Amino acid sequence: MSDTFDRARYPHWVTIPTRWSDNDQFGHVNNAVHYSVMDTAINDWLKAHGFDVAAGGDTINLIPETGCRYLAEISYPDAFEVGLRALSVGRSSVRWECALARSGDGELVALATSAHVFVDATSRRPTAVPQVLRPALEALLGEAAAPAEPPIS
After folding, report:
1. DSSP characters for 22-65?
2. Which Pfam families match (predicted)?
3. How many CA atoms lie within 13 Å of 111's alpha carbon, on the beta-carbon side?
């Protein structure tokens, strides 16, 4: 694990199990699964804080940007421990960072980032971050001034 990885920088943690089908022919979880894990952690958090895009409504969130830095392998049956924080909260957007650690030993396996823009469901034009979310999002900022850039080894 990188010396620069500090679990305390991520205010919210959740465990997401891997599935047998997540492993690819190389015997580790396929890279695309990391994005699904990040998406699940973020959307579960949003739903728990009053924003459920699946419930319908006037505002939805779109993802204009994602990124993932892979640092180590993870394989089924291990689980992901996912740390979530907000890097910034703007008028109509939030930038997320997820630390994906291997549950078995706590090693950081990936750092994933994404951005959500809240938009009007009909016009698809940016709209303000829902008021129900803003305090919870700001609480996720913590010490999130800069991404936790571990060195590539």
Report:
1. GB-TTSSB-HHHHHHHHHHHHHHHHHHTT--GGG--SEEEEEEE
2. 4HBT_2 (PF13279)
3. 19
Q: Which of 115, 78, 122 is nearest to 100 (CA)?
A: 78
Evaluate whether 116 touches 93 at the Cβ level (below 8 Å): yes
Q: What is the pTM of this model?
A: 0.88
Residue 42: burial class (beta carbons within 10 Å; 0-12, 13-18, 19+):
buried
For residues 129 and 120, what is the distance between their CA atoms, to the nearest angstrom? 11
Q: Which residues, listed in sequence order, are joined to residue 72 by a DSSP beta bridge?
A: none
Name the β-bridge partners of 17: 79
Give me the residue label for tokens 């180590």.
72
Q: Quick: pLDDT tens for 106-153.
A: 999 999 999 999 999 999 999 999 999 999 999 999 764 455 555 444
